[in-house]
């Protein structure tokens, strides 16, 4: 009733809802407005964040991440570690089939893992350390690790644990028309690539009660104003918002759900000074940390929805250390003094990517870095190339927001020498030793070794964090959601019907 009423009101008052949907929205449909278009369904190239919307309906994962970050069984009905943390045994639900009727076996799981490991996918780190996979039976396999990987369980609950039909791996058909064992089937008839992606219920799914909708539609809507209009009209039920539109969304009768999530700030990638020698000097990096008035940026640009921080990690997380907050206070004079001590009193020029998603901050970056003598040379980057361009290693400094994972997941994602977001592959003996100590800490054990890593990163100014920014998600009255601590959008099983 709510959806049809909204649509009628939109027509009667002439609201400019964008004509985006190909199929109508009704009470049995979950209609999501996505911030980004899908890139591929190739199992090795899948990612989290906004793109998880597209693959979660089709692909089941071995484990499941709860909203608080804890892990529980899923496609694998049980899992257990050896005492030394170097063997993980997974036991699968019996009788599960892919939607084409092919049995889902331990061999299929092994094929998917090996395909990801041998790929160039940015999330191959999720299976880091898995040296060998032994198939015990159709429903049991063992992952053998050279050394413990505390992030492995989280990886198996997200991209690392995806199971696609093995015959589609590495094929153009698999990249365009996915086949999995998940709660929904990709609807090739109603899907219009780039415009709307449609999924219909999998009648044979083993856990149907966790997914109350008969159909899911996902419409890429890049513009925030267009997403708001589509929500107002009832054309979609849910979409990513931003802190700056919270009041407008509430006034329109939408529900706002928020959660402190992403680290937001500068990635000082060229810490070795290979591209820009100045950035190899710790005093220059510390000066950058002191040059930004992050409290005022948070207040006036992002509506105060976040928490100023000096750490490139989103709490709660074992890497987070409250004692480090306040290490770098906004102080232009002190920043200038550090620049002079480092031999860069006259400043220098640095190339930064001009990203559409970060463009609102560009004038602030220019002004506040300029105040300590750092001139920014902007390089335009296409929205469709943002992630590949940032990960290419060509930019010595960039502004971005990145969600957290498990503590060791964050290490292998953007701290370790092989981490994709350690784009210059910086490495020091001191940090290597700290990482080696932390790798031996299994979940639930002593966090001090993780905090020692963050202490090193903060004092050596590997990053220049601004704040931990809130994720904002908008829904109409017919749908409710909860937000996970590790992702900017809800997981598919977080959407529920309200009956309104």
UniProtKB/TrEMBL annotation:
Provide this UniProt record's keywords sorted from A to Z: Signal, Transport
Where does this protein reside within or beyond the cell?
Answer: Periplasm
**Signal peptide location:** 1-21
SUPFAM superfamilies the UniProt entry points to: Periplasmic binding protein-like II
Q: Which Pfam families match?
A: SBP_bac_5
User: Which family, according to the similarity comment?
Assistant: Belongs to the bacterial solute-binding protein 5 family.
Gene Ontology cellular component?
Answer: ATP-binding cassette (ABC) transporter complex; outer membrane-bounded periplasmic space
The species is Pseudooceanicola albus
Looking at the record, the residues that make up the Solute-binding protein family domain are: 71-410
GO biological process entries: peptide transport
Alphabetized GO MF terms? peptide transmembrane transporter activity
Name it: Peptide ABC transporter substrate-binding protein
Q: Does the keyword Signal apply?
A: yes
Where is it chiefly localized? Answer: periplasm
């Amino acid at each position: 009733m709510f959806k049809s009423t909204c649509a009628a009101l939109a027509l009667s008052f002439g609201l400019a809802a964008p004509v985006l949907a190909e199929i109508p929205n009704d009470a049995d449909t979950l209609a999501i407005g996505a911030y980004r278009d899908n890139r591929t369904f190739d199992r090795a190239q899948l990612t989290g964040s906004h793109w998880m919307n597209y693959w979660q309906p089709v692909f089941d994962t071995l484990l499941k991440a709860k909203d608080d970050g804890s892990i529980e069984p899923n496609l694998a009905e049980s899992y257990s570690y050896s005492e030394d943390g170097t063997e993980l045994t997974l036991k699968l639900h019996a009788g599960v089939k892919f939607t084409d009727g092919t049995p889902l076996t331990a061999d299929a799981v092994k094929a998917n893992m090996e395909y990801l490991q041998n790929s160039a996918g940015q999330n191959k780190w999720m299976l880091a350390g898995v040296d060998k996979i032994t198939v015990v039976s159709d429903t049991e396999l063992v992952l053998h690790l050279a050394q413990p990987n505390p992030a492995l369980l989280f990886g198996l609950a997200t991209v690392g644990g995806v199971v696609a039909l093995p015959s589609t791996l590495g094929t153009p058909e698999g990249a365009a028309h996915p086949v999995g064992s998940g709660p929904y089937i990709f609807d090739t008839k109603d899907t219009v690539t780039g415009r709307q992606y449609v999924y219909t219920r999998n009648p044979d799914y083993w856990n149907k009660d966790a997914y109350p909708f008969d159909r899911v539609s996902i419409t890429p809507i890049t513009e925030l104003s267009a997403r708001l209009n589509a929500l107002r009209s009832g054309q979609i039920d849910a979409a990513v918002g931003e802190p700056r539109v919270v009041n407008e969304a509430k006034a329109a009768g939408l529900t706002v759900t928020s959660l402190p999530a992403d680290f937001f700030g500068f990635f000082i990638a060229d810490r070795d000074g290979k591209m820009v020698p100045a950035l190899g000097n710790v005093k220059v990096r510390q000066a950058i940390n002191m040059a930004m008035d992050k409290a005022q940026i948070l207040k006036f640009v992002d509506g105060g929805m976040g928490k100023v921080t000096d750490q490139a990690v989103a709490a709660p997380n074992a890497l987070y250390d409250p004692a480090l907050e306040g290490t770098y206070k906004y102080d232009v004079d002190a920043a200038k003094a550090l620049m002079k001590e480092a031999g860069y009193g006259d400043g220098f020029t640095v190339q930064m990517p001009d990203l559409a998603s970060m463009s609102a901050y560009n004038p602030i970056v220019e002004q506040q870095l300029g105040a300590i003598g750092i001139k920014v040379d902007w390089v335009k980057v296409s929205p469709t190339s943002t992630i590949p361009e940032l990960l290419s290693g060509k930019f010595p400094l960039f502004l971005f927001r990145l969600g957290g994972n498990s503590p060791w997941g964050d290490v292998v994602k953007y701290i370790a020498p092989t981490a994709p977001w350690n784009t210059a592959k910086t490495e020091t003996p001191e940090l290597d030793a700290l990482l080696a100590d932390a790798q031996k800490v299994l979940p639930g054990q002593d966090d001090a070794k993780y905090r020692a890593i963050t202490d090193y990163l903060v004092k050596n100014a590997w990053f220049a964090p601004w704040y931990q920014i809130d994720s904002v998600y908008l829904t109409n009255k017919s749908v409710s959601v909860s937000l996970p601590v590790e992702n900017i959008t809800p997981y598919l099983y977080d959407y529920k019907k309200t009956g309104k």
